[in-house]
Every structure is written in C-alpha cells, then in structure tokens.
Amino acid sequence: MIPVIDVEILSRSFGAVQAVDGLTFQVYKGEVFGLLGPNGAGKTTTVRLLNGLLCPSGGRARVLGLDPTVEGCRLRQQTGVLTEVPSLYERLTARENLAIFGALYGVPEPDLSRRVARLLEEFELAGRADDRVGGFSKGMKQRLALARALLHEPPLLFLDEPTAGLDPEAARQVIEMVERLSHQEGRTVLLCTHNLSEAQRLCDRVAVMDRGRLLALGTLKELSRTLWPGLQVEIGLRTPLTDAAVASLRLLPDVVGVRSEASQLFVNVADEEVIPSVVEKLVREGARIMQVIPQQPSLEDIYFAIRGERVS
Amino acid sequence: MNARTLQTIAVKDLKEVEQNRAAWIPALVVPLIFVIALPLGVILIPNLLQSMSPLMAPSGPVGMMRERIPALAAELAGLDERQTWVVLMTGYFFAPFILIFPLMFSTIIGAESFAGERERKTMEALLYTPASDGELFLGKMLAAFVPAVALTWVSFLIYGIVVNAAGWPVMGRIWFPPASWYPLVFWVTPAIAASGVAVTVLISARVRTFMEAYQMSASLVVLVLALVAGQVTGVLYLSLSTALAVGLVLWLIDGVLIILGVRTFRREALLLSR
To answer: Are strands A17-27 and A5-14 parallel, antiparallel or unpaired?
Structure first.
C-alpha cells in the first residue's frame, strides 16, 4: 500500500536547536495517526514541514505523493489543517471566515456558499453564522476552525491539539467530530496531541516524540508488547486459591508468573491465547471464577513507560 | 498568479481594516484638516488683513515664492493680489502635500497586513492555504494600494471642491486644479502609494506588531517631505515635466521593489520572524 505520508530521516533545526531529528514513519490511507509528545517535542514543526511551510534541514518527505518543499501549493490544496490556535478573523463573521478560506482553497464559486452553509449547519454554528467570531466561545471557534479545514474536502487532515483549552463538553464534541471524519468519512488524520486519553480513543497508531526524535511507533498493542512482553490477567475468585492450585497453575505452558492476593489472582501469560487454558485449569482445581480481566495497559501507561525508559 | 486569490486576500484585509476603526479614523483626521481647514484658512486670511502688502512684499510668502520660482510668473500673469495669493498658496504651495496622503494611507493598511495577522494570531491559517508566497505578497500589497490611491483621489476631489467654492468670491471662476496637479495626482501619487505599500508590507512581514510596522514605515514620509520642502523653498518646482520625471523614477523603484518582494518573500520567514 502506498503511504499517504512517507517521511524518511526528516530533520529541521533552528540554529542550535534540533526541532525535528531524523523522523521516519509512514501514515496510510484512512488511518488516524497520533503524534504524541510534550510541548516542544517537534509535533507542530513536523506538521509545518509536511505542509511545505518550512523546508527540512535534512531527509525527505512525500505527502499524497508530492514533495512539500517544491510542490507546497498543490499539496495544500489537498490538506486541511486545524492549527493549535484557531487562527480565525475575529472581526469577521463565521460565514465570512469560511467564505474567504473557501476562495483561497479554490472551492468553485457556485459551490462555495452552499458548502459554507452546509458546514455551518453540520458544526452547529448556523444560528451564529452572521455574528462576529470575536464573540464566540472557545469550543465554537474550534468547531469553526475544523469546518474551515474541511471546506475543500481534503483527503488528509492535520489536527494540532484539537481539544487544547476546551472544556470537557466542547472537547467531547470535537473528538466525536474527528471520529466521524476518520471512521465514517474515511479521511486520513494526523493528530498531534499531548492528551493521551484523546489519542487512545482516536488513534489507530501512535508515534511518541520527544525533543524532535521518535521514541516509539506502533499500535497500542504493539507498543504494549514491546514494553511488557506477555499479558497480565486479573482473575476474581469467590474464595482464595490453595497454594497447591497456584503451584499447578505455574506449570502450565506459556504461563510466566502467578501471584495470589486473597481472592484475587494475577496471572502473567505469553499472550491472550493462553487465557482459556488458565481458566480451564482453575475450574478443574475447583475454583469458582467471578471475573477474568485481561489487563490492557492504557496509552498513558505506555507513554510514561516509553518516556521513563528514555530518561533512564 | 491566481486573480481570485489576490482579490480574496485584498478584500479580506480591507474588511479587517474597516473593522479596526482605532487604526484608520485618526489617520483620516490629518488629511481632512489638510483638504478642508487649511485651504479655507488660507483663502480667508486676506479678509482679516487690512492690506495684502505683508503677504506680497519680497520678504513675504508670495514675494519669496515668486522670486524663487520664476516659472510661476506666467501662471500668475494678470491676477490681482488676492487672486495671486489664492492661486499661489492653494495651487502651488500645498500641491506637494497631496503626496503625503498615499503614504499615510498605505502605511496604515500595509502595516496591518502581516504584523496585524501575527499580532492577532491569524497568520498560520493563511500560510496553510494553497496561496503561493508571491500571491500572499501581492494580495497584501493590493489590499493597501487600492484604498490608499482611492482615498488620495477622494481627498484631492474634496480639496478641489473646497478651494473652488471658498475661492469663488475672489477668483470668480473654477480655476482649480492647475495643469501641474494632474500628473501629481494621477501619476506620482499612485507611484508613491506603491512604494509605500511594498516597503510597508516587507517591513510588516518582519516585525511583530502593527505599531512596530507602522512606526518603521511611517519614516518613509520623510522622503516625501523632501519633495514638499523642495517645492516650498523653490529648490524643486513640481512642474508638469518634473512631476512626470519624479513619477517615472518612482515607478521604476516600485517595479524593482515588487519583483524583489515577490522573489524573496517566503512564508517560512513569516513563521520564523518573532
């Protein structure tokens, strides 16, 4: 499959500061790809490089088959960017803002007003379409900025901290919109965020960045397996298990560890395929099982483990 | 170059400037004083004097201008003292002041362009559009050039109406503008506006705030004041041929500035100048 974004050893420095340092990754069609990292990790610089706003100091990037450095104008016709700050003209109305950007993105004149009206409706801003944006709440501005990024119906979206500074309700609205754009409309999304729960909910794969460098890349499962080979299963029992039963559990193939705490049992297995045989063995040992919960580490656990590894 | 892109950037900027009354209303006050209060005052001065002699004497303003600009003799032939005063002051003495207007207007609007966008944190979205670097530069130039020239011409029109109306009792006819004003207004002022806009937009792209850009570009007025001083002191009389020559030089400079601007203007520099 040809990647939508193909980055190879991409670097960019500002004087002595290496903002992006040898990034290599690919993003495929229809994927939500998360760039995670703290402020200053190089996420925004990466988005600017991938849209031809900045020239790389080294390496190369192809986005939608184009070189952003030399074909930036053509490329930007096909990308929609939600910047960290909504970047809206606050003295102008919502409708004027969209109409201006629609014209700049080359939306044909006959379609423009229809498309603007549809997006205002879709993003629940139709009632305020002719009000100045300066009077809008942060959530409304963010929705308008997202509508602006979609005006020219781009196949590739860059969303830079889409929920930064929003209250929980507004953040949830934006997340639901992004979910719809990716999962229902099939757009490719590159999401820059340091909001880990948002990334966990939205991203198919994530790349963890710090100080311009890529620390880890993969799906949640892949990253988890790299960090913690195997899987921990928490088993709730009606009564504590006997020592003999615990010992017999340890003898099962692909069981790497067993820990018993009162009526809770923590079993480390090679992978989830082993869980049925563990349960079967427990039943045979006379245990009454209340619940079996495979412990999937959260993205937050993975993120801090990766960053912790890097620090150590 | 995409005409629709240029037009959109220009119209957007004009809408923004229109909303920023704090920036343009003070800038209209000075020209209004210039085109209404000053000619009225000058035309009415003789009514307050018992005799025109202090004005007409060799050491007075009329005498000095006559002496320093011999070319005016033909223009003033057959006029009485009060007519000479009106024609000389409103038709020649004030003529170069009209050259300041395009700079005043263009620097205000031009300074708003990139510095204003940066100040209001709106620039990044503009940079992510498919507009080329050259289109961004020219669009911003157009946004400042068109209103600067239009406002200058409107000022000229008001000045003409005031001078002819207030001077009617003295002149008894519509005499303004003299021929030398046409090249000044329609040839030199657009050229000055273009220079002002090009320089201001380039400055605006490199500084952080509107005020910084405005203050730096406002120093361009000094160059025009040199022309004003030249005319007032008689060193440089803005006759038809001089005005045509000054305009030509300015247009050539404009051409170079615009080509340089389009070639050297880079969105990366806009992002990185903080």
So the answer is: antiparallel
Q: What integer is the mean pLDDT of A200-223?
A: 89
Cα B49 to Cα B54: distance, rounded to the nearest angstrom: 9
pLDDT of residue A165: 75
Whether B130 contacts chain A with CB within 8 A: yes
Contact A67, A122 (CB under 8 A): no
Instruction: Choose among A149, A98, A53, A50: nearest CA to B133.
Output: A53
Burial of B93 (0-12, 13-18, 19+ CB in 10 A): middle
Give the tens place of pLDDT for each residue, A251-268.
988 888 888 888 898 888
Please tell me which residue of chain A has the smallest CA distance to B19. Answer: A91
| pLDDT of B101 | 84
Q: Do residue B128 and residue A77 have CB atoms under 8 angstroms apart?
A: no
Q: How far apart are CA A237 and CA A290, in angstroms?
A: 5
Judged by a CB distance cut-off of 8 A, whether residue B20 touches chain A is yes
Interval B6-24 mean pLDDT: 83
Q: Would the pLDDT of A312 be above 70?
A: no
Spell out the SS3 assignment of A247-280: HHHHCCCCEEEEEEECCEEEEEECCHHHHHHHHH
Count residue pairs from A and B with Cβ separation < 8 A. 74
B130 → chain A, closest CA residue: A73
| Mean pLDDT value of segment A4-13 | 96
Non-local CB neighbours of A180 within 8 Å, separated by 6+ positions: none
- Nearest residue in chain A measured CA to CA from B118: A87
Q: What is the pLDDT of residues A91-113, one digit of tens each?
A: 899 999 999 999 999 999 889 99
Cα separation, B159 vs B162, in Å, equals 5
Indicate whether B112 pLDDT > 80: no
Cα radius of gyration (chain B): 21
pLDDT, tens digit, 9 for 90 and up, residues B166-217: 989 888 899 888 888 888 889 989 998 898 888 887 777 777 776 777 777 6
Best of A104, A107, A159 to disrupt the B interface (most B CBs within 10 Å) is A104
| Residues of chain A found within 8 Å of residue B10, distances taken between Cβ atoms | none
A74, A105, A145 ranked by CB distance to B129: nearest: A105
Please give, rounded to a whole number of angstroms, the shortest distance from the CA of B193 to a CA of chain A.
Answer: 26
pLDDT of B217 reads 67
The 8-class DSSP code of residue A155 comes to S
pLDDT at B113: 73
Distance of CA A57 to the CA centre of its chain: 26
**B9, B124, B128, B274, best to mutate vs chain A, most A CBs in 10 Å:** B128
Provide, as residue numbers in chain A, all residues whose Cβ is less than 8 Å from the Cβ of B138: none
> Running DSSP on this structure, what letter comes out for residue A91?
T
**What ipTM describes this predicted complex?**
0.83
Q: For chain A, give the mean pLDDT.
A: 89
**Interface contact A145, partner B, CB < 8 A:** yes
Contact state of A96 with B15 under an 8 Å Cβ cutoff: yes
